[in-house]
Amino acid sequence: MTVLVRLRRGLFEAIHQDLRVGHPFAYERVGFVYGPFVRLSAELTLVLPAHYVPVPDDEYIRDPSVGARINRDALRGALQRVLTTGDCCLHVHAHAGSGTPRFSSVDDDMLIRFSPALQAVGTGARHGGLVLSNDGAAATFWSPLEHRLEGGRVTIVGAPIWLGTESKGNTSWW
């Protein structure tokens, strides 16, 4: 199944602005993006991120082995929002650099542990992660049938439009 993510430029910039703010002890900030998950056909779905919710400072755990670790209150909040709204939920953070970013092995491990719980409460949508670069983004989604993560295709909509694919690393600007 192909998952297309259409991220508004204004939301992309607002998320980036928040993720750039320093934290008292975490090396990076994280948050959650929520929005409708629309099945266009049996093989094609569309995610329209509409809301960004940053993880509050007091919901981070001190752990120097990772850029950021969040506590169960942060995770519970994400689960509750999915249960209440039925929206897609993407865990979001940023990596330095330009073009299409890649998920790290730490990112994949966290998403493999957390995404099935999101899927259990939000069965009508797919859930996963979104990683931003300075000018692009990549998405990955939990596949409940295959029990693994699958890449999505992200387009940042609004001038300038950015097109990229997580799996091939191609980028274009219009």
Q: Specify the overall morphology.
A: globular
Q: What structural class do helix, strand and pairing data support?
A: alpha+beta
Radius of gyration: 15 Å
Whole-number mean pLDDT: 91
The run of helices and strands is EHEEEEEEHEHEEEEE
| Termini Cα gap | 26 Å
**Main sheet attributes: strand count, strand direction, barrel closure:** 11 strands, mixed
Q: What is the percent of helical residues?
A: 10-25%
Describe the structure.
With 174 residues, the chain is an alpha+beta fold. 24% of the residues lie in helices and 36% in strands. It contains three helices and 13 strands; from the N terminus they run βαββββββαβαβββββ. The strands form two sheets. Strands 1, 2, 3, 4, 5, 8, 9, 10, 11, 12 and 13 form an eleven-stranded mixed sheet that branches. Strands 6-7 form a two-stranded antiparallel ribbon. Helix 2 (72-85) crosses helix 3 (105-121). Residues 166-174 have low confidence and may be disordered.
